[in-house]
Design goal:
Layout lengths: L1 H6 L3 E5 L7 H11 L3 E3 L1 H7 L6 E4 L5 E2 L1 H6 L3 E5 L14 E6 L13 E4 L2 H8 L10 H17 L1 H4 L9 H11 L5 E4 L3 H9 L7 E4 L9 H11 L5 E6 H6 L3 H8 L3 E7 L4 H9 L14 H8 L2 E5 L5 H10 L4 E6 L13 H16 L3 H10 L5
Parallel strand pairs: 1-2, 1-5, 2-3, 5-6, 6-7, 8-9, 8-10, 10-11, 11-13, 12-13
Antiparallel strand pairs: 3-4
Length: 382
Amino acid sequence: MADLINRAKTVTVFGGDGCRFAHDEVVALATKIGAPVGYAYRGKQWLEWENPNAVGMSGLLGWGGAYEAMHHCDLLILLGTSFPFADFYPTDCTIAQIDSRGTMLGRRARVDLALVGDVRDTVAAVLPLVDAREPGRHLTHALHITKDWRERMGHYVTRGSRLKQIRPEYLVSTLDELASDDAVFTVDTGTACIWAARYVTAKAGRNILGSFNWATMANAMPYAMGSAIAVPGRQAIALCGDGGLSMLMGDLLTVAERQLPVKLVVLNNSHLDFVHIEMMEAGIEPFGTTFKNPKFAAVADAVGIAGFRLENPNDVRSTVDQFLATPGPALLDAVVDPHALSLPPHITLGMAEGFSLSLAKQAIHGNLDDVIDTAEGNILLA
């Protein structure tokens, strides 16, 4: 491993959940060899904080310079990750992988060097054997891309209170800012994962928990319930999709009965939003993805949970502050922009063709208003 690193002109590190106890060692290695550090979703909470070489996430939910850094390096080092998206791996560089589970080695990408071992122990053993080098263009370029991404992602945050509808980016960013440094964020499968990936800041004492697997809706509320029981005294904040919360709405009775101090945030857009996006990516005119919601805040009040209804962007900060400060369980029913979209760091030709075809079909079949609303609502992404 040390020989590969010393021979390579440019190195990129990409880590996952296997870096759980290896933050200091990975950051020390990356700093010594001037390597950008990207991460999978499961690696975000371990590698993003106090890491000057952090360049964001790769994959469909990704952001920042991780994709570029992985595709323009001589050596890619995979640390404790089973990142599943083959299209986001490079094919023309040397790849080394460390994992405590031998069955993971080479499972997702062709690997030139495979090491079975604990990430922390192995990186610590490699560290004194590698040559120190000054940060080069490879790292500075990836950091520059990441900085540009942060500025772009901030568009809907800085303008949030002045927009007509509540943008989920603004809402989640406000939650991130006002939450405790040691909060446990739990995330539903769906677009809640996108907003958490980009707008929940990883910190040394925080946890970000989710299924992070396909088609596993409705996990955020039960994860938060479990967190409130397992680690009493820490904030447990669930980012729930409206479809997910509706599937397990009966669990609100358990929250109320046990007075579990969870804070449930419902992204209320009357959409199965991620399914809607997947249909558009496939070139399909979305169908069966919209529904009529109850007033979740009223439902919460009815069962004995403090309910907050949020509809006006001007009220986001004050309402979130009051919501988080409420003793015991509370539910925030946030009516967010149903047309909010989030684009990955790398868009394939197939994705672009799919979205274009889907929008064309919607226009042809009389849904031009939705097409215009989608375009106007996401103009700042361009």
